[in-house]
Structure of Pre-mRNA-splicing factor SYF1:
Amino acid sequence: MTTMKEKVVSGDTTYVISEDDWPYEEEMLRNPHSMKHWQRYIDHLKNTKSLNLNTVFRRALEKLPGSYKLWSNYLCHRRGQLKMKRIDDKMYEDINNDYERALVFMHKMPRIWIEYSSFMTEQCYITRTRQVFDRALRALPITQHHRIWPLYLDFVSKHDISETAVRVFRRYLKLAPEDTEDYIEYLISIGRLDEAAIKLAYIVNQDDFVSKHGKSNHQLWNELCNLISKNPTKIKSLNVDAIIRGGLRRYTDQLGPLWNALADYYVRSGLFERARDIYEEAIQTVTTVRDFTQVFDAYAQFEELSLSKRMEDAANNPNPTAEDDIDLELRLARFEHLMDRRLLLLNSVMLRQNPHNVQEWHKRVRLYENQPHEIISTYMEAVQTVQPQLAVGKLHTLWVSFAKFYEANNQLDDARAVFEEATRVPYTKVDDLASVWCAWAEMEIDHGNFNGALKLMHRATAMPSRRVAYHDESETVQMRLYKSLKVWCLYADLEECYGTFRTCKAVYDKIVDLKIATPHIIMSYGLFLEEKNYFEEAFRAYEKGIALFKWPNVHDIWKRYLEKFLQRYGGEKLERTRDLFEQCLEHCPAKYVKTFYQLYAKFEEEHGLKSRVMSVYERATEKVPNEEKFTMFNIYIEKAADIYGIPKTRQIYEKAIDVLNEENTREMSLRFADMETKLGEVDRARAIYSHCSQICDPRVTSNFWQVWKDFEVKHGNEDTMREMLRIKRSVQAMYNTQINMMSAQMLNTATAVQSNEIPDAMRLLDSKSVPAEQGRILPPKDTISFVRGVTEGGNKISQVNNPDEIDIDIDEDDDNEDEAQMEEEVPVEKQLIPAQVFGGLRTNDDD
């Protein structure tokens, strides 16, 4: 059994030491100032859960009062003993005393201060806790204050000690002004809005202020405006009007919210008339539709609420006076007037954005409908404001509309004065000035002043003191107006209607001399001369136009010229007419020659020789585009048949077959063969079918083979039918061979690429020189030959059914012989019908 002894330690404190503790006590006697031995002793007591632990801690601290480790462990141990203790327990005060004793030696240790301050905050001793924080700030160096202030601020914010908290925040902001936003939030939370607004106004005026919450200066401005506008009675230290107007000058992209905030401030202050003035000022100064919409909606809502409030008061008042009724009507009229002005106010905003927008000025005039004085003022302001170089739209339309307004009100002198002033404006384009002159002349025409209109056009087209280029933008538009086609066209029309022949002709000649004429003007000039029976003058006008323009612009002039010339002279001047046609066709593009050749051929047919008609059509078949050659050959054949008879068309058919594409060639060949059949030339027709068959794949052009089959059934015999079937199989084999050759060549090429085997040049040359043998069809330009399969010994393995075969009653021996003959393949050169076939079948009638 372990024996126990009592021992008195440090004064009046007595405690029991167990036998296990004696070795540690002896160590302490030998080394009383050894931190290691005291820590070993303390750890031993912690493990044994001895009641002497506090006493040993105090003994150690008496020997080593400057040990931060001992004080920290001791205070942590003491706080751990507070578990399950009430807040008013005596032990709390004992621990406070321990902290005070520790701070005698550890007053430079921020951790001790932090723990003590937190411990005091838990006990809710406001004054003592504040004093601890103050002592900590005085004891610690300023570099350590950032560890104390968050606890201090959190402490004063938790309790209802606003005055103390404000003073603490003010002290803190001297050290950390970047945390002003936290102070402002606290002030707003406790209702001290005046000081909050002052601090917020201070930071928004600091250009170098950086928000810790990432807010921009603009956001801070909005917060300030919302704060001061919604609390006008609580904020007395700031000039709200000056502050918000300063924001209006600084943040021009947020004018709408700022104007609304200023107006809201006066509304909450009860100054309704002042608020109405602010709204009016806002809608007269904002420059964007978004800001205008925000201000106008707020203004309309304000007026509506004011009206509804007045109506409620009137309804609750049983005895309304005359002043109440007048005030109610005044508010209602003010609200209606505001809503009626919305479009006009919006138009003012658009014009403030860009005062040079012509379309917006026109809209403004339309908004002033039935208000002549306002319309005139608007036009005057518009023409004085819009600069020609900056105008968006056509400036001359403003001047013209202004003059037409006076014209509509029968003030012609004022309209002429406006036009006169409009002709002096330095427009950017000549066409604008020309439009003004034309509008002025049209006004004079509408009122019957034809001579005045002619004089205006004469003024407009007068030659300047020196000739200038039309596109020389360094010159004024007034100097370049004499080359304006719009003015000259109107001048020519006026001269035609109200002038003399001589003056009108002079105008057209002047247009041609200035080289500003168009094909339409040339034709109008010619038509005018023809109406006056000056046909040769008209033809000379057409020739001037032809000399001015090139193809294709000259197409309509040539067509009109030739038609009118033929209509005038007919067949009287053959050589001159032919010369005109030749001049026209000399440089005529293929796209337009068809019309002129047909006109030329018609002329020769009516007044010339038949041989010339055929010559014209032959030239036409050579000159027209490929897509029109088929049509032209049909016309050529039809005319040849009418003039010389059907046999003469053979040469035309042959030429057509040579030059047309495959599809048209097949159609032409069928017609040719049909014609020969009707003439009784069966052999000729068969030769044509045989010739055309080489471009007729049986799988695609089954119609051709059906026509040939019907022909042979009607006009042929067994031999010709078998020959037709043989040619059909031969042609089909030829097309199949081409397809198979392409497939095989592609396959061989792919195989050679995969195996890196490329045929040498000699092998290709040998393969191309393989002779044509019996039963083999050689492709013209490929290295792969198609060999028809034949069974050795003449034994038939299978019998092929030919769908085109016809049933003809013949003897069995002849049938076998013909079938054997049909099994043979003839070389390609025997299948193709040479060109001499047509010549060999000709008769004396062909010539």
